[in-house]
Amino acid sequence: MQHRIASPIILLVSRFITPYIMLYGFYVIFHGHYGPGGGFQGGAILAAAVLLIRIVNDPEVYEIHFKSSFGIPFGAAGVLIFFGIGFIAMVLGGNFLDYSYLPLVGLTQADVRSTGILLIEIGVAFAVMAILVSLYDNLLGEENV
Amino acid sequence: MKYFNYLIIIAFGAMLIYASLGLPQRGPASEVASQETSIAGTVLPSAYYIKNAYRDANTPNMVTVVLADYRSIDTLGEEVVIFTAGLICYMLLWRKRKNAA
What we know:
Chain A is mostly helical. Chain A has helices at residues 8-30, 39-56, 59-65, 71-91, 109-140.
């Protein structure tokens, strides 16, 4: 097990900049209704923030931040969010992935569909972020741990 | 031989540019891609999307509506592809860490 001693400047800058990268990722996800963006792009930006922590720090630090065993389960959870929303709509009488049948009271049909789009974008972002981090962890392998 | 390869690349590029001159324009409503029915009489979806995207899903970004609502089964497939790639990488490369800290 080899400790990489990062420069304190790199540590400080990465700690300063990571929350803003994450915030920008969430902005890209939630702004997908009004401009360029969406789940895939926002998930990639969130993964960039997590990977910055992974590149700079030692495993005992970044395992606190995002456990490397969480990658595959979180990716499966993202796919299940997407599939589950489509399946709920199918159970409640519509077609598969017909969001206007989602059980959200007090909204018009168009607003329910808008909310359904937002929910599946969150599922996509979840899966993309977790899978990118999982790919990094698996490709890095055993020797750096 | 090197110059021959360059010649092939340039000739192929010129051929692609010449072929792109025959593509239809995207803007005018009279073009094939903008019409509501095709030559064979079937209904084309693109004009419907442009007219009804905001009314159906109350979302200003038409691309998001097409991607996540009208064509959401395609997006689900893309997400499953990404998840499968990650899962295969995990199955091929993951090893049990013996001396985990």
